[in-house]
Design a protein that fits this description.
24% strand, 217 residues, Rossmann fold, binds glycinamide ribonucleotide, three-stranded antiparallel beta sheet, seven-stranded mixed beta sheet, alpha/beta, 32% helix
Length: 217
């Protein structure tokens, strides 16, 4: 689609919390690592620290408090209006802790990415670090994926593996996973900005080849 041909690629980033991934993307844009420009940051929480990071970088911010809307659909419609005002080529979910309606997801199909702290399709949903440790596995990680209507179910475009060490706690593991998040999310956004990454027939295509997907275990 023409939108992925924007240069620089216009991004709108959605957050709910600390925004350390947002910071990594801000830094990657500023350094020229990726040919993209963050047009706005939108949070569903007024106290999200990521809003400060955006303001520091001179990026417009908006708060859309989901508790002020009658239902999920009304919130998603308002959110979509706010996003579309900036005509982004890519919508980036960076710790945005909201389940999205199918209508919203389909509106951005092929131009919305999410980062999820597990090796998808394993550990969809919440508390991924704790669940990974409790599973007895010695491997965990993080995935960037295209967003589709199935929660945390869209095709993975980039991933990193993180070893689970003896005596690991969810907090320690989360820190090491976050370091990888800050590397692989800008990388994936860079691929999209260069027109190398696309969603086609439910597959994530990088340089014309489907990105390999993992088996659930
Ligand atoms: C990150 O670990 C991200 O992968 C996770 O929230 C954290 C946000 O950190 N996202 C999810 O769990 C989505 N289901 P940040 O605000 O510091 O970027």
């Amino acid at each position: 689609m023409a939108q992925s041909q924007q240069s620089p690629l216009a991004l709108v980033v959605l957050i709910s919390g600390s925004g350390s991934n947002l910071q990594a993307i801000i830094d990657a844009c500023a350094s020229g690592q990726i040919n993209a420009d963050i047009k706005a940051v939108i949070s569903n929480r007024a106290d999200a620290f990521g809003l400060n990071r955006a303001e520091q970088a001179g990026i417009p911010t908006h708060v859309l408090d989901h508790t002020q809307f009658s239902d999920r659909r009304a919130f998603d419609q308002a959110l979509s209006q706010q996003i579309d005002h900036y005509q982004p080529g890519l919508v980036v979910l960076a710790g945005f802790m909201r389940i999205l309606t199918e209508e919203f997801v389909n509106h951005y199909l092929g131009r919305m990415l999410n980062i999820h702290p597990s090796l998808l399709p394993n550990f969809q949903g919440l508390n991924t670090h704790k669940r990974a440790i409790e599973s007895g596995s010695n491997q965990h990680g993080v995935s960037v994926h295209f967003v589709t209507p199935e929660l945390d179910g869209g095709p993975v475009v980039n991933r990193a593996t993180v070893a689970i060490e003896p005596g690991d706690t969810p907090e320690l593991l989360a820190q090491r996973v976050l370091q990888q998040e800050h590397r692989i999310y800008p990388e994936a956004i860079g691929w999209f900005a260069e027109g190398r990454l696309k969603l086609a027939n439910d597959l994530a295509m990088l340089d014309g080849e489907p990105v390999p997907q993992l088996e659930k275990h």
